[in-house]
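Example record

One chain of 118 residues, shown exactly as stored in the release files.
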Amino acid sequence: MKATHSHPILLTSNLADTITDLEYIGYKLQWKFGDPNWYAALAIDGLELHLRQTHHAIPPIPQLYLTVDNINEMHEILKKHRIETDHAPENQEYGMKDFQASLSGGTIITIGEVLETQ
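Predicted structure tokens for this chain:
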């Protein structure tokens, strides 16, 4: 037996709006489930994540770290769509340049780019 995939499941209090926010980032909706919808899958560049609607409090901590190849461009996309971020991309001592974004429905993600080594 071998594992073939692993998909993070992010919690949201508003499935439809969180799907829209992730589509701004570049994710594409794969499928939705339930009537009304309470579960969905989205993918970007071969990476899939799942969303689950919840009526419980969502912890105010990042649920996903997405690494991209142009952090400044991603930050501008989020600003254009009025998605709240904690700050402009900043270099971190752990070798990443990153920031956090608060998506609709309470989902918090961190978006980062690997810093070039000297």
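Notes: The CA atoms of residues 18 and 103 lie 6 Å apart.
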